[in-house]
Amino acid sequence: MVPAMVVTKAGMVAVIGRPNAGKSTLVNKLIGEKVSIVTDKPQTTRHRICAVLNENGVQAVLMDTPGFHKPRTRLGEYMSKVVRESVSGTDAAVLVVEPIASVGDIEKDLISQLAGMKCPAILAVNKIDKVDKAGLLEVIATYSREYGFKAVIPVSALEGDGVDILKGELLPLMPEGPALFPEDVVTDQPDKLLISEIIREKILELMRDEIPHGTAVAVEKLSERPDGLVDIEAVIFCERDSHKGMLIGKKGAMLKSIGAAARAELEEMYEGKVNLQTWVKVSKNWRDKPSALGQLGYR
């Protein structure tokens, strides 16, 4: 029997940055398994997702946050509020940026929040394969003039380059204290939310750009039979009748593809067979309706 790790230091870490900077990919690499969905489309992450990293007696609870942006809907306002609240209650932060030698308005806003909290922060310059060494040094110099980062780490979240170095700089920033989560807990997200996010990830991967951001998924049934088969019933919400037709597809082909892709990943998650049933419903302008947002878990 492996003895439990004795945690002597533990803290919360906000992982922040603009949409599509690679925050979720980086969190998954740091943890060593998938806790956040990942696509190449911006604003994939909508909730704050806690991922628990345990190593050498230190626990760092990584808060994967939505991409910070100027909101245009109530859903966007919710996502921006999640980022601000995450920064305000954190022990440290990781600002993830792309290798561009200028500090954008979004990054300046986030740095201002860090400065206001006097928050120790690490800069992770992601996607280093897109820039040469001279360009990377220019990015590092530009951001170093903006804020006193505890460390500036070039990384490739996709390939894992620099992730161990980042982890080595991050863990010592955690304050002394007991564990915030049990050692065997990897994320704070309930199964229903994890399932809905996996289904939404497949929509993002398979659908055209104009449709996915107007969709949300609600899991209405989750149960397990005596033989271990997991039954899941989920509703995909969209904003327009025309989008409903596209989500279903000709003779149901698109909905079948979404279901098949989601089912394959869910069967890995549950290590067994999954019976996934999905439906599509129209909820016009749900991203601007407080009642609809609350029903879908955006509180």
Number of helices: 9
Measured by DSSP, the beta-strand proportion falls in: 15-25%
* String of helices and strands: EHEEHEHEHEHHEEHHEH
Structural class assignment: alpha/beta
Low-confidence stretches: none
Helix content: 25-40%
Number of strands: 9
Characterize the largest beta sheet: strand count, sense, and whether it forms a barrel.
Answer: 6 strands, mixed
What would the average pLDDT be, to the nearest integer? Answer: 88
What is the terminal separation in angstroms? 41 Å
* Order of strands in the sheet with most strands: 2-3-1-4-5-6
Question: What is the molecular shape?
Answer: globular
* Rg measurement, Å: 20 Å
3D structure, described in words:
The chain has 299 residues and is of the alpha/beta class. Helices cover 35% and strands 21% of the residues. The strands form 2 sheets. It has a 6-stranded mixed sheet with strand order 2-3-1-4-5-6, sandwiched between helices. A 3-stranded mixed sheet has the order 7-8-9. It is globular and about 55 Å long.
Quick overview of this protein structure:
By secondary structure, the protein is an alpha/beta fold. It has helices spanning 23-31, 74-88, 105-117, 133-144, 163-170, 191-206, 241-248, 253-270, 290-295, and strands at 9-16, 49-55, 58-64, 92-97, 121-125, 151-154, 216-224, 230-238, 274-282.
